[in-house]
Amino acid sequence: MFLIPIIVGTIAFAVLAPIVGCLLAGLDRKLSARMQGRVGPPILQPYYDVRKLLEKDRAAVNSVEGTYITCALAFAVLAGGIFFGGGNLLLSVFVLTLSSLFFILAAYCTRSPYSEVGAAREALQIMAEEPMSLFIAVAFFLATGSFDSAAAFTLDAPAITVAWLAFLGFLFILTIKMRKSPFDLSYSHHAHQELVKGVTTEMSGRTLAKVEVMHWCENVLALGWIGLFFVWGNPISIVVAIVAAALAFFLEILIDNNFARVKWQLMLKSAWAVALVAGGINMAVLVYL
């Protein structure tokens, strides 16, 4: 019985997340262009780009690269299915990290110096944001008594009322998860940030298309984690959660267009400091409440 919601959630996420993620990516480009005084591409431009990639032949330096990317996409979808199926939030975090590790392996297997530098930076980004991701799952457990995301619907008040400090910490590392400046060290979607395309330098065709779809799914999942803290035992809370996720999404675009990329040392130090202060203090308070 426990597996049925996860299976249903995974299938629904596999179908809906790429659609929602594609629209969010198009909206991201449009809003970024407006902030920079440009017209910008159409909202469906990310879809057109991926469709074009799917029509191209894949030129792989190492044939195993495509297998690693397929695994990364599969685990990203599974992480979303676990979360939106009402499953274990902590497990969702771990599965998404596993997806990122396969992405790193795909970059390393090409033996390109540019890809290897991008893969090393991707690993640093995971090291920077992972502690706060774990803290947010633990804070949710302390607030609800369960790691299951479905437990949020049993609350009398949203989890953010008691876990707001941990939530702010997660909002900080959301910039890393969504690959936004100033923390887009390994891979940026903006041409002005890249001369060589970082971790995806040697990827092309269908492999690169799967990477784009994977990023769409990751963004939807990350925004879902944001919305989780605004849900309680009232159907109207779903609307509140969607609004909160939309505001967080707009904030990330605003940050992306107003801050230059920083060095990895500053990213690592600041992310860990925020995790220690925001996550540590909030969990200590919840333990003794």
From TrEMBL:
<dbReference type="InterPro" id="IPR001694">
    <property type="entry name" value="NADH_UbQ_OxRdtase_su1/FPO"/>
</dbReference>
<feature type="transmembrane region" description="Helical">
    <location>
        <begin position="90"/>
        <end position="110"/>
    </location>
</feature>
<feature type="transmembrane region" description="Helical">
    <location>
        <begin position="131"/>
        <end position="153"/>
    </location>
</feature>
<keyword id="KW-0472">Membrane</keyword>
<protein>
    <submittedName>
        <fullName>NADH-quinone oxidoreductase subunit H</fullName>
    </submittedName>
</protein>
<feature type="transmembrane region" description="Helical">
    <location>
        <begin position="238"/>
        <end position="255"/>
    </location>
</feature>
<dbReference type="Pfam" id="PF00146">
    <property type="entry name" value="NADHdh"/>
</dbReference>
<keyword id="KW-1133">Transmembrane helix</keyword>
<dbReference type="GO" id="GO:0005886">
    <property type="term" value="C:plasma membrane"/>
</dbReference>
<keyword id="KW-0812">Transmembrane</keyword>
<feature type="transmembrane region" description="Helical">
    <location>
        <begin position="6"/>
        <end position="27"/>
    </location>
</feature>
<feature type="transmembrane region" description="Helical">
    <location>
        <begin position="267"/>
        <end position="288"/>
    </location>
</feature>
<feature type="transmembrane region" description="Helical">
    <location>
        <begin position="66"/>
        <end position="84"/>
    </location>
</feature>
<feature type="transmembrane region" description="Helical">
    <location>
        <begin position="159"/>
        <end position="176"/>
    </location>
</feature>
<dbReference type="InterPro" id="IPR052561">
    <property type="entry name" value="ComplexI_Subunit1"/>
</dbReference>
